């Protein structure tokens, strides 16, 4: 088994909320609140979760744009926080990002050649056969015509722009690519092309992907492992087959039941939808215990009385934060394959998963 | 080559990518589009021709410094008076009280006024862009300091402080340009700061930061080029304001000092001649009007060209 190229240990990112004249820190937005995972070379970790669950903050922290409040990010086993100046420069080259909106991700005043070639200029890198040919090769790699280097972003379609963004991210030969919803702003027909391109590039270059999305279908297609995020924490993690077909956490089940089923007969008789009511709680003041218990259908099912007793029953939901622990079939594994883990006190006692395919 | 490339890459039936490509014959860069929209603005074109004509005539007629112009009279010599000094073929703009050629004087005044106006435009644009970019990009305490400084400059009555500084310059035109420049950058600084605040959150700036680009390079390469619209428009309007400010100062006697002249000082000197020898008043007044109007029109045209959503032109 190869060593993990990226390892994140208990990553926390809080944004201070300052109030009043003296700008005292009164509170903190807990954008990312204790996230751990590993990614190996050539593998993809898909991160799903609704808006505001901290996915994008996670991405920005991995890129080094935000400094983590606590926790560690290890690239090739080295702690990013303790890197020297040169090491940090190298890190910039190892971790790159593909953005969600191809219309704001490219500087409208720079030509494609300047955009894709800028990482070389910033890092004073001289590619073997010169910068121009390197840019041409990158464009070819992502399926664009190298003859278009002198064009400007507005002359390209969304899918082509996304390819330009990918070419720029690949310029410095990174080992980890953070894709923050790389296809959600694209037409469905183009989404497939870009996803296929990303997969081909992964095979060719051995890249590790952190693939953030809220489209569960796309994530299932690309990911080797899936992590579900809710309010800055991972609530479920495991191989796609396990997570999709044997979801353990009530939140994951709700997410999956919201997936559109491309079969009218199913939809007409669909009584399996698990409704989660209300908005996510404020990350400034997350609920005590399990962050999801205020909206959790399972906790409601287990009853008010059980929630309040605070002992062995469902009262733990409101008092004790659950930890991410192996459950189900994955529990038998001994760490060689990604185990199926969920942060729910009652993951084992769940009724039959609601999303079994017909 | 282009076709084979697109097809051989074979990402599914992805014709949509290829079809949406703007055909070569109709592709313009963002700047070319701006230029095209500007040239459709008739008022701005007339204004540009007018301004160009004023500049060319002002600088070629009496020449600049040691370089002689095509006009056969200079500003220093008192010529024999023809009649009461009203415009004649020999002196098309007339003569002043002691017989100096008023065309030469007006042209010299136009030169000085234009120099001051463009100089002030340059200085204030440089300061305003710098302050706005730094405040907007770095935010935090630097932003607070620079914006409070801006507020302080804004609340000082412009004409009063300009008069004091103008007096201190002792008639040195370059110092006057500096003095007026450090008083007029405030609105641009605020505009640029606002633009930068929104631009710095764009993904392409994030991408540059992710690569490890130095902040100075990010500002110069990624942010400022995208504020060029605001900057150019504001610079033009500052030039228009500066020419009027210089006129007002010189009229009050705090600007350009004799023996040099500007359009404002000419009007000031001959304000009592308005009823008796009106040409001494009207010619410089007309020049001020022509320059201020055309610069304003050009500014309008540029604003429409850079921001087509706010267009006020028909069609």
TrEMBL record, chain A:
Pfam families: ABC_tran, oligo_HPY. SUPFAM superfamilies: P-loop containing nucleoside triphosphate hydrolases. The keyword ATP-binding applies. GO terms for molecular function: ATP binding. Residues 307-339 are annotated as: Disordered. It comes from the Bacteria. Signal peptide: none annotated. Residues 6-256 form the ABC transporter domain. Keywords: ATP-binding, Nucleotide-binding, Transport. InterPro entries: AAA+_ATPase, ABC_transp_ATP-bind, ABC_transporter-like_ATP-bd, ABC_transporter-like_CS, Oligopep_ABC_C, P-loop_NTPase. Belongs to the ABC transporter superfamily. This is ATP-binding cassette domain-containing protein. It comes from Myceligenerans indicum.
From TrEMBL, chain B:
The keyword Membrane applies. It is found in: Cell membrane. Its main location: membrane. It comes from the Bacteria. Residues 110-299 form the ABC transmembrane type-1 domain. It is a multi-pass membrane protein. The keyword Amino-acid biosynthesis does not apply. The chain crosses the membrane at residues 44-64, 112-138, 145-167, 173-192, 223-245, 280-299. Keywords: Cell membrane, Membrane, Transmembrane, Transmembrane helix, Transport. Pfam families: BPD_transp_1. Belongs to the binding-protein-dependent transport system permease family. PANTHER family: D,D-DIPEPTIDE TRANSPORT SYSTEM PERMEASE PROTEIN DDPC-RELATED (PTHR43386:SF1), OLIGOPEPTIDE TRANSPORT SYSTEM PERMEASE PROTEIN APPC (PTHR43386). This is ABC transporter permease. It comes from Myceligenerans indicum.
């Amino acid at each position: 088994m190869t060593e993990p190229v990226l390892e994140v240990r208990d990553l926390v990112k809080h944004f201070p909320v300052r109030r009043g004249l003296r700008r005292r820190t009164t509170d903190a937005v807990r954008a990312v609140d204790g996230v751990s995972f590993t990614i190996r070379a050539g593998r993809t970790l898909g991160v799903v979760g609704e808006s505001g669950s901290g996915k994008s903050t996670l991405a920005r922290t991995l890129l080094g744009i935000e400094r983590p409040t606590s926790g560690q990010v290890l690239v090739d086993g080295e702690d990013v926080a303790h890197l020297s100046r040169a090491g940090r420069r190298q890190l910039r080259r190892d971790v790159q990002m593909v953005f969600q909106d191809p219309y704001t991700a490219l500087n409208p005043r720079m030509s494609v050649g300047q955009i894709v070639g800028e990482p070389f200029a910033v890092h004073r890198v001289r590619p073997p056969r010169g910068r121009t040919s390197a840019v041409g090769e990158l464009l070819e790699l992502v399926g664009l015509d190298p003859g278009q280097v002198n064009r400007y972003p507005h002359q390209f379609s969304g899918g082509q722009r996304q390819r330009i963004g990918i070419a720029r991210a690949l310029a410095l030969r990174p080992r980890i690519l953070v894709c923050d919803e790389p296809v959600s702003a694209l037409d469905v027909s183009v989404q497939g092309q870009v996803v296929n391109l990303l997969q081909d590039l992964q095979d060719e270059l051995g890249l590790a992907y952190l693939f953030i999305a809220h489209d569960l279908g796309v994530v299932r297609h690309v990911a080797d492992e899936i992590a579900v995020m809710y309010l800055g924490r991972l609530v479920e993690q495991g191989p796609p087959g396990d997570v999709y077909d044997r979801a353990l956490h009530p939140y994951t089940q709700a997410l999956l039941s919201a997936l559109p089923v491309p079969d009218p007969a199913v939809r007409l008789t669909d009584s399996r939808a698990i409704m989660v009511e209300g908005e996510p709680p404020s990350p400034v003041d997350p609920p005590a215990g399990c962050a999801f218990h205020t909206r959790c259908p399972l906790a409601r099912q287990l009853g008010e009385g059980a929630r309040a007793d605070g002992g062995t029953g469902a009262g733990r939901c409101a008092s004790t934060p659950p930890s991410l622990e192996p459950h189900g079939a994955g529990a038998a594994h001994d760490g060689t394959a990604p185990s199926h883990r969920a942060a729910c006190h009652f993951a084992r006692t769940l009724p039959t998963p609601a999303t079994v395919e017909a | 080559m282009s076709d084979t490339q697109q097809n051989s890459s074979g990402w599914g039936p992805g014709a949509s990518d290829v079809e949406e490509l703007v055909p070569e014959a109709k592709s313009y860069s963002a700047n070319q589009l701006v230029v095209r929209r500007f040239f459709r603005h008739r008022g701005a074109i007339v204004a540009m021709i007018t301004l160009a004509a004023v500049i060319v005539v002002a600088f070629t007629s009496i020449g600049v410094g040691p370089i002689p112009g095509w006009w056969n009279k200079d500003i220093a010599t008192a010529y024999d008076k023809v009649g009461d000094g009203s415009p004649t073929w020999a002196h098309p703009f007339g003569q002043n009280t002691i017989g100096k050629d008023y065309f030469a004087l007006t042209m010299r005044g136009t030169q000085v006024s234009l120099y001051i106006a463009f100089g002030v435009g340059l200085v204030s644009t440089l300061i305003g862009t710098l302050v706005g970019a730094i405040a907007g990009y770095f935010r935090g305490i630097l932003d607070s300091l620079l914006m409070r400084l801006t507020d302080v400059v804004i609340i000082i009555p412009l004409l009063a402080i300009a008069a004091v500084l103008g007096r201190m310059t002792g008639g040195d035109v370059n110092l006057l340009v500096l003095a007026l420049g450090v008083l007029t950058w405030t609105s641009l600084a605020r505009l640029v700061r606002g633009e930068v605040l929104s631009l710095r959150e764009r993904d392409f700036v994030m991408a540059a930061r992710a690569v490890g680009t130095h902040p100075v390079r990010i500002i110069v390469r990624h942010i400022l080029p995208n504020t060029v619209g605001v900057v150019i428009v504001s610079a033009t309007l500052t030039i228009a304001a500066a020419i009027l400010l210089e006129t007002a100062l010189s009229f009050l006697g705090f600007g350009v000092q004799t023996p040099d002249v500007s359009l404002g000082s000419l009007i000031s000197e001959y304000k009592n001649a308005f009823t008796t020898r009106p040409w001494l008043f009207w010619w410089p007044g007309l020049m001020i009007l022509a320059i201020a109007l055309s610069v304003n029109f050009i500014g309008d045209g540029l604003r429409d060209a850079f921001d087509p959503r706010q267009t006020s032109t028909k069609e």
